[in-house]
Each structure stands twice: as C-alpha cells, then as structure tokens.
C-alpha cells in the first residue's frame, strides 16, 4: 500500500489506523493533527480510521515556545 505523507511517498504492507501510522512514523509529539485528503480527522477516530492505498495524509505537530 502506497501513501503520501506530508508530500513524501511511503509504502506499508497493509492498511493502518491513524494511531498505528503515527506509531510507525515515530511521532512522539503529544499534540498533533491529521488530515486525510482535505478532511481533518477528529482525535476520537484515530484508533479506528483506516488509511487506504493512495491516501494523501498530512500530519502537523504543534510546538510551543515564545
């Protein structure tokens, strides 16, 4: 399965939930947002929303500072 993540093509052996994808990518930020296509996915769906072949995913992490 091929997925575009933040503009970079990645390949996985099966469909993944958003939670699984974030874990595989090693994202440790406590606050992040995920959009698939042009739709922002609610955090409540991260455990169940499946990323499919050909999806375009944007993952944005939030950094505090001042």
From TrEMBL:
One Pfam family per UniProt: ThiS
Q: What is this protein called?
A: Thiamine biosynthesis protein ThiS
Q: Which organism is it from?
A: Persephonella marina (strain DSM 14350 / EX-H1)
């Amino acid at each position: 399965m091929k997925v575009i993540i933040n503009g970079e093509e990645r390949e996985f052996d099966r469909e993944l939930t958003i939670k699984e994808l974030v874990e595989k990518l090693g994202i440790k930020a406590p606050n992040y947002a995920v959009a698939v296509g042009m739709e922002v996915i609610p955090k409540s769906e991260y455990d169940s929303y499946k990323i499919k072949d050909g999806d375009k995913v944007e993952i944005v992490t939030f950094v505090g500072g001042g």
